[in-house]
Amino acid sequence: MVWLSRDESGKKFLAPSGAIKVLQVAAVVLTVLLVGLATTAAWQALRGPDTGPVKLAGSPVQIEIKPGTDTETIARKLQSVGVISSSTAFRVRARVFGVDGKLKPGVYDLTAGMSASSVIDALKAGPPVVYVSVTIPEGFVIDQIAERFEKQAQVPKNEFTRLAKSGALQFVEGHPYLAGAYKGSLEGYLFPKTYRVKASSSATEVIEMMLDQFGKESASVDFAQATSNGLSVNQLVTLASMIERESKLDAERPLVSSVIHNRLRTDSFLKIDATIQYVLGNNRFRLTNADIHIDSPYNTYAHKGLPPGPISNPGLKSLQAAAAPTKTQLLYYVLTGKDGSHTFTTNLTEFKAAKKKSKQVFGE
To answer: Alpha-carbon distance 246 to 285, whole Å?
Structure first.
């Protein structure tokens, strides 16, 4: 109630007690207004300016979160590409949900205009795992394998090559057949096959997979028979790698193996062109005189016996042929068929005749 009084002139005026109550009411109203303004300002600050590009809600946006990226940087990046409208609101929610600093790196396919909660859920779960099928043909060498895995599955080529060419010691505990690997190289033991790998796997993961496969596949190979004939595991794999590079037809692999075994037994130079090609780094069809005099322990024209290590990564049929050659008196073979077939001979006269035939088929 407002109390009124009159002065000497008869005019009405507020009594002191009434004035106090009006002031109290005004103070309450003013307080409410100030709180409202403060709340509005805080909300505007929380939303932050929409600095991202204008995108139609629902339009696809692909974004990559790199390892080690903090939540603030992620939030700003999401806002800048239009996925969220406020980086500040995103960061606040991340803290409330207890995932600040726990969002997972990777490539995400998001959409414009998503809620902060939806994006946080996606980044908390991590990107979907992408698998890639990579086929490694029989006879590939380390450099070819590394290049293919990098191209098709984003496996670092340099890391793969470094480990594969000198890192056998790192893998020998789980793969004891690597104990005799020449200079720590995994050449010969990276089993050729079609592999299903996670994109961007590490080189170590892929190599472990290939070595595991070698162990499984080679379980059917009679290594005991080979070792009883004086060949170590590394020598058997080396022999298999030569068969792999010299033979195109499966039916001929045991015959090529027989020739190599026979020449080893007679202490003859093997003169396997594929060993020279391995050193040269190419598949030159006809070797030159300079080629066969190249200074290398892999040169089987200049050094008797097997080369010190494998020259390719052989498949199962070549491994089996190396361990169980056909029993023959064959000492030579020459490529004479365009289908990859060879003429096999037991003496030098027949060998020279076969070479003449090869030149007729393929030219000089």
So the answer is: 12
Residue 86 to residues 17, 90, 209: CA-CA distances in angstroms?
51, 6, 44
Nearest-angstrom CA–CA distance, 236 and 238: 5
Asked if 57 and 83 count as a contact pair (C-beta separation under 8 A), the reply is no
- Indicate the helix (H) or strand (E) that contains 169: helix 168-171
Question: What's the mean pLDDT in 322-332?
Answer: 96
Predicted pLDDT of residue 33: 45
How far apart, in whole angstroms, are the C-alpha atoms of residue 300 and residue 273? 8
Question: Residue 6: helix, strand or coil by DSSP?
Answer: strand
Residue 312: phi and psi, rounded to 5, are -170, 180
Look up residue 301 and give its amino acid. Answer: Y
Question: Quick one: pLDDT at residue 225?
Answer: 80
State how far the Cα of 186 lies from the Cα of 192, in Å rounded to an integer: 13
To the nearest whole percent, how much of the chain has pLDDT over 90?
Answer: 74
Q: How much is the pLDDT for 200?
A: 85
DSSP 7-72: -TTS-EEE-HHHHHHHHHHHHHHHHHHHHHHHHHHHHHHHH----SPP--TT-EEEEEE-TT--HH
Strands (E), 155-201: 194-198
Residue entry with tokens 């190419």:
282
Domains and CATH numbers, the chain: 4-38 (no CATH), 60-125 (3.30.1490.480), 131-218 (3.30.1490), 232-330 (no CATH)
Distance between CA atoms of residues 181 and 173, nearest Å: 13
Fill in the amino acid letter for 44: Q
